[in-house]
Amino acid sequence: MTRTMSVTALTRITWRAPALTAVLCLASLTVAAQGTDGTRVSALSTLIVWIPFILKGFLLNLIMSILAMAIATVAGVILGFMQISPSVVLRVPAKLFTQLFRNSPWLVILFAIMLLLPFQVTLPGGDKILIPDWVKATIGFALPVMANVAEILRGAVLSIPSGQWESAESLAFTRHQTLRYIILPQCIRRMLPPWMNWYALLMLMTPMAAILGVNEALGNTQAAMEAAGSHPEFLIPFYLFLMTIFFVFIYPISIYTRRLERRFAAGS
Amino acid sequence: MLDLFAPFFQRLYETTGINFTPFYDPYDWGRLLEGMWVSVQLILAVIAVSMVIGVVGAGAQTSKLRIVRFLVAAYIEIFRNTPPIVQLLFFYFGLGAITPQVDMGGWYEPVIGSFGWAVIALGIFGGSYNVEIFRAGVDAVPETTKEAADALGFSDFKIFAYITLPLAFRFSLPALTNNVISLAKTSSLAYVIAVPEITYTLSNIWSDSVNVPEMMILLFLYYIVLVAIIAWVMGWLERKLALPGYGQ
Fold it and tell me: Where are the transmembrane segments (chain B) (predicted)?
């Protein structure tokens, strides 16, 4: 009896956690502010002055993550379809492409895109368009997610019982019709939780763009600290604040993802 | 070893302009080897730290104390839902600034260098995933097995250490493989705190010799080979530890 008692469900924290973190963050700032010397007080007040600037950077993180996710979803679905195609010419390159981007670190892909992509393109008419760094970073972030979306699609299609394919065939559906009307509608439900997981991960990776000089949240935080005189005591509050804004945004997504996972697992 | 292929790559550069400096320049060759070695050390250390955290965390999650379970849950959620790069910077610059320094006879050096902080930060980050992975493995251990151990007079700790953990480890291997591979890839983030691992080294080489595409190819190859090796080792481990009666 005692044995079964000790097996408790994994302890989870609910919606209160982001609020709690924000409070803890503020509390630690206040503690830091109560330091005896005058410089400590300025750490908190400096942060408050720079918060709008950091949030403006965070907006770019949001835009990059949403755009990258859109690109990754479209490209990933196409790549996923190529992977399950009966034609070898489509399947093999798609597999190689997927593996290349799945097995390379985000930073390396980001470097490759940033350094190898031209910084401007010439349109057929002769006009030159400059590609801003953040657009290139967005493409860099989209590539690894694209490969994983492709894998999610492939996995979802494989998880559909083969009886579904066979009954569709016996009803004289073509392959295209079977995919369009029978397989895909069932896949979307299974794909949604991992898709959201990848969005959360993508959002968490966007600060890497700061390494390559994009003025997003991390870049702006570092710029703010420098502008404020780069005192070492700024480091902890500023980075803590940055972690908090990401946490407050990502955590609800994580919770909702888990809820969906549970619901779909129970439904199937 | 360099002498074997140096003439080939030297000629390749002279005739085609394809410049693989590490394969003919002894200095860059040394840097490449050093970068690969540091990267392997970093990955192994990070994996070790994250495994220990995973096991301890999974054990703590079964604690009867509510506060302990809450703290582990908070740890998991905080580290999984904040950007790893900011965590790394926070540890290195934020905490690194307040850690004690040792007098090296004239100059001061922090007790924990950038490599140490990278291991700590990435280990803690990876550990937050491992806790859940081991926890799922622990859940998969049949209740009856634990009851049998209980009936034989094993203490709670002994049941965890000798019965639950060895079984849970086997159940969690597939998920663990994924996380280990993802950690190996995340190790390239140590670039931001200037740990001289492969990404950092090769970026130094391409800034010196302006041969970005060639070094990119090397970097991609390095990680593809690395991931293949890890996947192979983990697959071997899985087969070696396979339990009769489970799976196929």
Answer: 36-58, 70-95, 107-125, 217-237
Alpha carbon of residue A229 to chain centroid: 32
Q: What tokens were used for A131?
A: 């590609």
List residues bridging with A129 in a β-sheet: A121
Q: Which of B62, B82, B134, B178 to mutate to test the interface with A (most CBs of A within 10 A)?
A: B82
Angle ∠(B235,B236,B242) on CA atoms, nearest 5: 85
Cβ-nearest to A17 among B77, B86, B191: B77
Under DSSP, is residue B208 helix (H, G, I), strand (E, B) or coil? helix
Written as six digits, the tokens of A250 are 């990502």
ipTM exceeding the 0.85 mark: yes
Q: How far apart are CA A184 and CA A179, in angstroms?
A: 6
Run of H or E including B196:
none
Q: How far is A12 from chain B, CA to nearest CA, in Å?
A: 6
Which residues from chain A sit within 8 angstroms of residue B61, using beta carbons?
10-11
Count of C-beta atoms within a 10 Å radius of residue B69: 19
Q: Residues B200-215: pLDDT tens digits?
A: 999 999 999 888 889 9
Question: Residue B109 has what pLDDT?
Answer: 75
Please list, residue by residue across A85-120, b when 16 or more beta carbons sit within 10 angstroms of its beta carbon and e when fewer do: eeeeeeeeebeebbebbbbbbbbbbbbbbbeeeeee
Please give the structure tokens belonging to residue A53.
């600037």
In SS3 terms, chain A reads as CHHHHHCCCCCCCCCHHHHHHHHHHHHHHHHHHCCCCHHHHHHHHHHHHHHHHHHHHHHHHHHHHHHHHHHHHHHHHHHHHHHCCCCHHHHHHHHHHHHHHHCCCHHHHHHHHHHHCCCEEECCCCCEEECCHHHHHHHHHHHHHHHHHHHHHHHHHHCCCHHHHHHHHHCCCCHHHHHHHHHHHHHHHHHHHHHHHHHHHHHHHHHHHHHHCCCCHHHHHHHHHHHCCCCHHHHHHHHHHHHHHHHHHHHHHHHHHHHHHHHHHHHC
Give the mean model confidence (pLDDT) for residues B108-114.
80
B192/chain A closest Cα distance in angstroms? 7
B102 forms bridges with which residues in the sheet?
A: B109
A224 backbone dihedrals φ, ψ, rounded to 5°: -65, -45
